[in-house]
Write a structure and sequence with these properties.
The protein is α/β, with parallel strands linked by helices and 421 residues long. The chain folds into two domains: 202 residues, Enolpyruvate transferase domain (UDP-n-acetylglucosamine1-carboxyvinyl-transferase, Chain, Alpha-beta prism); 210 residues, UDP-n-acetylglucosamine1-carboxyvinyl-transferase, Chain (Alpha-beta prism). The protein contains 14 helices and 24 strands. β8 and β9 form a beta hairpin. The protein is globular, with a radius of gyration of 21 Å. The site of uridine-diphosphate-N-acetylglucosamine has 20 residues, from α5 and α6.
């Protein structure tokens, strides 16, 4: 199994090209199931999750090809659905597989999708996805670990109020509503930039969606959608991760294709923590201010709040700040698995329920550590970049799910980082 070995202590210097957003690419790929016409997506990141989604779509009948001579450009066409079943072996690998539910149901009147089950960061149910589709007239049965959704007479527009702004539920309902009969309103919808990107693609395909990026989405149902070309937004989580790589190594990086506002509240917290963020013609420039890193409290919230996907990385940063930091996770109940691994590197962190108290200190020491999920893994890489002595991160397949060419990008700005098989 692959491992990453890091020799820390080098201030990173230079430019990093930020990739397209994985969390936008996956729903956008699922959305192509809504039409029999070709859809071309560019800026698609070359990460394992995109590969898994490609394989799932191929099983459903999608012809999916990377365009020769245009890296990151994917052409997807589902002339007809050959199967309406998303099997357990793919859904269990990647929760975003459940995003084929809404599009298949809307197009074919039927979808059978494995329940994703628990995952390392919590139980992560899909009850809100199902509630929304039921409100649009779907009949949902749970059988042998599978959701069987049918809408023999098609879906009908409805008013759907989410009790909390779930990203996945908003995406599934939004996609289904595009082919429903009549108008749909989603109240308390998620407002993440990835939802805005999904709505932009759907509108380019001929959908009529208003309010993307706000809490109220209004969708006018259409009888069919067409093909389109669309460039995927930059990955704000990857950008935030590399911003913290600059901060934790006292380096200076320019993150190409990104602006500070893409990071939402995280940009403000990073500045309070002692990073200088500046939008330049070249991209977002990040370096540590003269005073060094300072302890700052953060609480994860739906966008524009502090992203749960940046929590683990921020904790690594706070391990080397002066003063203490209280980090509270409100989205997922079990998202502190990086804590014992950071402790192996000398970090002082105490967890009480959903909050972790980090007592900053002057240094971390390298150690063998184990990756447990995507963002936890990259927080260990950040800690390793700053630590004294070598750090070995085991189980790096988690990193490959969501970070494109991580070692290459970090080596390009001076890090000593290698992969070994
Ligand atoms: C979440 C993040 C998203 C991130 C992704 C991958 C938020 C709001 N969402 O999206 O930014 O990119 O993880 O790590 O930060 N829930 C239910 N029932 C449902 C669906 C969700 O109870 O049917 C709950 C979840 O358990 C969670 C909250 O709602 O507590 C938000 O979940 P949701 O936004 O759906 O999660 P993801 O779509 O995976």
């Amino acid at each position: 199994m692959d491992r990453i070995i890091i020799e820390g202590g080098i201030p990173l210097q230079g430019r990093i090209q930020v990739s397209g957003a994985k969390n936008a690419a996956l729903p956008l790929m699922a959305a192509t199931l809504l039409t029999d016409q070709p859809v071309e997506l560019s800026n698609v990141p070359d990460v394992a999750d995109v590969n898994t989604m490609q394989r799932l779509l191929q099983r459903l009948g999608t012809a999916s090809t990377m365009q020769a001579g245009a890296p990151g450009t994917l052409r997807l066409q589902t002339s007809s659905l050959m199967s309406t079943t998303a099997p357990y072996d793919l859904v269990r690998k990647m929760r975003a597989s459940v995003l084929v539910l809404g599009p298949m149901l809307a197009r074919q009147g039927e979808a059978i999708v494995s329940l994703p089950g628990g995952c390392a960061i919590g139980t992560r149910p899909i009850d809100l996805h199902l509630m929304g589709l039921e409100r649009m007239g779907a009949v949902i049965e749970l059988e042998q670990g599978y959701v069987k959704a049918t809408a023999p007479k098609g879906l009908k527009g409805a008013e759907i109020k989410l009790p909390q702004p779930s990203v996945g539920a908003t995406e599934n309902i939004l996609m289904a509503a595009c082919l429903a009969d009549g108008d749909t309103t989603i109240l308390d919808a998620a407002q993440e930039p990835e939802i805005v990107d999904l709505a932009a693609l759907l509108n380019a395909m001929g959908a009529e969606i208003d309010g993307a990026g706000t809490a109220i989405l209004r969708i006018r149902g259409r009888t069919s959608l067409s093909g389109a070309s669309h460039r995927i937004i930059a990955d704000r989580i990857e950008a935030g991760t590399y911003a913290m790589a600059a901060g934790i190594t006292s380096g200076q990086l320019v993150l190409q294709d990104v602006r500070a506002l893409h990071l939402g509240v995280a940009a403000e917290r990073l500045e309070e923590a002692g990073l200088l963020l500046e939008d330049t013609a070249d991209g977002l420039s990040v370096r540590t201010a003269n005073g060094g890193l300072k302890g700052v409290d953060v609480m994860t919230r739906p966008f524009p709040g502090f992203a749960t996907d940046l929590q683990a990385q921020f904790m690594a940063l706070m391990c080397l700040a002066s003063g203490a930091s209280m980090i509270t996770e409100t989205i997922f109940e079990n998202r502190f698995m990086h804590v014992p691994e950071l402790a192996r590197m000398g970090a002082r962190i105490t967890v009480h329920g959903g909050s972790a108290l980090v007592r900053g200190q002057a240094r971390l020491t390298g150690a063998p550590v184990m990756a447990t999920d995507l963002r936890a893994s990259v927080s260990l890489v950040l800690a390793g970049l700053a630590a004294q002595g070598p750090t070995t991160v085991n189980r790096v397949y988690h990193l490959d799910r969501g970070y494109e060419r991580l070692e290459e990008k970090l080596r390009g700005v001076g890090a000593r980082i290698e992969r070994s098989g």
